[in-house]
Specification:
Layout: E1 19-25, E2 43-48, E3 54-55, E4 60-62, E5 72-73, E6 79-80, E7 85-89, H1 94-101, E8 111-113, E9 126-131, E10 141-147, E11 156-157
Parallel strand pairs: 7-8
Antiparallel strand pairs: 1-2, 1-11, 2-7, 3-6, 4-5, 4-9, 9-10
């Protein structure tokens, strides 16, 4: 037949990462029960429940506004592997967080400083939002969580058994 056309192309589909915020603590709620009187900044734990590593370079986090424009960006190449959790800290360095946490924090835990203007968790309740590097809309989040008023020295942990229900 005359005029036929064949077109060939490759389509690469990238699965959405399965990143979950699994623990949160506002520095305001700390009772410094480990004997450290210097206090600590806000921190949260991000876990990769998916089956492939995720490069967090360019990802953005916001712990106050649910706003890409107010978010802090991950500016280093940080890989979070399947079944790995990393800690994001504010108003302290990774070394200061390790000192505050104590010796039971494994040396392999990655700690990311996300200091940014306007960031800060409130012990009276707040939210954390995480966007990937190409997000253009506030609602295009890869992970988010909200929490109510906290108790001094207690973190908010999230029951992952509820996440695996179909």
């Amino acid at each position: 037949s005359a005029g036929g056309t064949n077109v060939s192309f490759d389509l690469n589909v990238t699965l959405a990462p399965n990143l979950v915020i699994t623990e949160v603590e506002s520095g305001e709620s700390s009772d410094n029960s480990n004997g450290d009187t210097s206090g600590h900044g806000d921190w949260f734990e991000l876990s990769n429940l998916g089956g492939f590593p995720v490069n967090l370079y360019g990802y953005r986090v916001d712990d106050s506004h649910n706003s890409l424009s107010a978010s802090a960006m991950v500016t280093s190449r940080v890989i979070i592997h399947p079944d790995e959790s990393i800690v994001f800290v504010q108003d302290m360095t990774p070394a200061q967080f390790r000192t505050w946490w104590g010796t039971n924090l494994p040396a392999t835990v990655q700690i990311i400083d996300y200091n940014g203007a306007g960031q800060g968790l409130s012990a009276s309740g707040d939210e954390i939002h995480v966007w990937n590097a190409v997000a253009t809309d506030n609602s295009d989040q890869v992970a988010a969580v909200g929490f109510e008023t906290g108790t001094a020295g207690d973190t908010f942990g999230f029951d992952l058994t509820y996440l695996d229900q179909s």
